[in-house]
Amino acid sequence: MAQSKTWWTSKTVWINLLALCGSIALAFGVDEASWAEISTTTLAVVNLGLRFVTNSSLTAN
Question: Is 43 a domain residue?
């Protein structure tokens, strides 16, 4: 059985929270043209990389 870990120790969760911060920055007027392109591509690459190194599930507590 795979080991589980708490949600706050997940690199994937933190990367996605960082992406959320970027989306909030867009809402407040950061240069949309360059930010959207760079952040979308970077997030996709990072999430794919994390998927390959992840070997445990998350728990809610």
Answer: yes
Residue 24 lies in a domain: yes
* Residue 46 domain boundaries: 8-54
Structurally, the chain folds into a number of domains equal to 1
Q: Rounded to whole angstroms, what are the CA distances from 50 to 11, 21, 26, 38, 54? A: 7, 19, 25, 18, 6
pLDDT digits (tens, 9 = 90+) for 29-59: 767 677 677 777 788 888 888 877 777 777 7
Predicted TM-score (pTM) of this structure: 0.57
